Amino acid sequence: MEFKVDSFILYLATERGLSTAYQLSVRQTLDKLLEWATTNDHREWRDLGTDELSAFLGDLRKTELDASSLRIAVVHLKIFFRFLQKRHGIEIDPAEPLLSPKTSAKLPETLNQQTVENLLGSIDSEKKLGKRDLALLELFYASGLRLSEICGARLEYFDQEDHFLRITGKGNKTRLVPVGGRALKALDNYLTGERSNLITKKTSSHIFLSVRGGPLSPDRVRQIVKERAQQAGIEQNIYPHLLRHCFATHLLENGADLRVIQELLGHADIATTQIYTHVDQKRLKAVHKNFHPRG
User: Fold this and answer.
1) Is the same domain home to 79 and 132?
2) pLDDT tens across 63-92, in order?
3) DSSP string, 259-285
4) Taking the complete model, does pTM exceed 0.85, yes or no?
C-alpha cells in the first residue's frame, strides 16, 4: 500500500508538475488513510470501498478536521483512487461517489480605513528599514496583492511612469495592478535610497530585499506586518492577507464596481469576489442599527 502512495506522489511531481507543498498535503492525507486502514485491518487497496472511505472521513472529522479541510481530503482521495484505477488496475473507483461537505461562507476579516491609516502612519521611514517596510505595507494595501505576489515582485515588472506593476498570480495568470500615489511615493523613496544599501553581489531583481540582500521570504513578510501592527498599538491579529481584504472592502465601500475589484484581485470567478459584498452589507447593517432611531 505504501508503495502505491509513493508512486502517486512521484506522479504528482514528475508528470503533473505540482508543487512540493501540494505533494506534502496529499501525502499527509494518504498517510492518515494508511494508518486508519492498518488499524481497521484493511491490508490492500481493494479492501477499501466507498463505505470504508466514508468511515475514514467521519473519523477525521471527529478528531481534527473542519469542513474546509475535509473537502481538501476528499479531493486528495478522489485523485488518488482515480490514479489507482488508471495505473494499477483497480476495477471500481471507491472515491468517485464521495460527496464534499458543505462549508459555511466565512466572511473575511477586515480593518476600518482609520485603522489602516494608523498602521501606515506609524512607520517612521527615517529609521532603519522604515522605507522598505512602509513601501511593503503601502503596496499591500494599495494594490491588493497576495503574499506570494509581493514576494515575487521584481523591478523589471514595475512601470514607474504609468504606475503599474505586472503580477503573475494563481494559475500562472498575469495581470496589471495600479500602484496608488502614496504607495508610489513610498516605493520611490525605498528604491532610490534604502534598497541600494541592501544589495549584495548575489542580489536579484526582487523589489523587496532582506538585510542579507536576498528576496524577503513569506515568513519574514508575515513577521514584518505583525511587528509593525504591534508598534502601531493595534491589538487585532494583523497578517498580509488581511490587507488584501482591506483593499477590496474599502474599494467597495467607496463605490468601486465589483467587476473592477475582481480584475484587480485576479479572481477567476466573480463569485469569489462577491464575498466582499457581504462584508459591506454587514457594515451597513451595523451603521443602521447604531444610528437609526428605530435601529
Assistant:
1) no
2) 766 777 888 899 999 999 999 888 877 788
3) HHHHHHHT-SSHHHHTHHHHHHHHHHH
4) no
